[in-house]
Amino acid sequence: xxxxxxxxxxxxxxxxxxxxxxxxxxxxxxxxxxxxxxxxxxxxxxxxxxxxxxxxxxxxxxxxxxxxxxxxxxxxxxxxxxxxxxxxxxxxxxxxxxxxxxxxxxxxxxxxxxxxxxxxxxxxxxxxxxxxxxxxxxxxxxxxxxxxxxxxxxxxxxxxxxxxxxxxxxxxxxxxxxxxxxxxxxxxxxxxxxxxxxxxxxxxxxxxxxxxxxxxxxxxxxx
Length: 223
Known about the structure:
Elements: E1 13-14, E2 21-22, H1 23-27, E3 31-37, H2 43-61, E4 64-70, H3 74-88, E5 96-98, H4 103-107, E6 132-136, E7 142-147, H5 156-171, E8 174-175, E9 186-188, H6 194-200, E10 206-209, E11 212-215
Helix pairs in contact: 2-3
């Protein structure tokens, strides 16, 4: 069965460039981003890991841990990290997970259950479904799944934007509209009845239609 939003992210133990981890223990009450790669030394993925290395402080500000994953042995990851630093101008400090036995990719529904063999014999095209981004909450549940084709580099600024929305809407009874950015107006959740809305927003709201109730973004300190 394919993973769905709200499912508990599969736990696993694996070797990484930062040592061996047990995934759920590694999350340890934080938010987490797991982004996967079909193979080391691929051009688009090299740019992606480099960009994530440059913006890692933005994830840290939001209490989010990040981890890359690739279906290659650990020694290849170490070599690849050197290439990433040389070509992208940033050193990868977050863990790159070795999924050389395909078990994590299978658990996350990115490869078929019957895949086996030597990862060195497989081409990026063989593993092309392993181009996913998973955002996982402190409750270990999956909050976002993005799947990208081989030829399109991922937009990690969009991942940050979604995390901002997820963290806001987890703590407030609001939703974020199309193209929302941090600080923009938000929408009162449809599940909030009129009487409750009046208690939460006594100053009122803008309502171009009865089902659209627009309010300023709540302050972080409010609950």
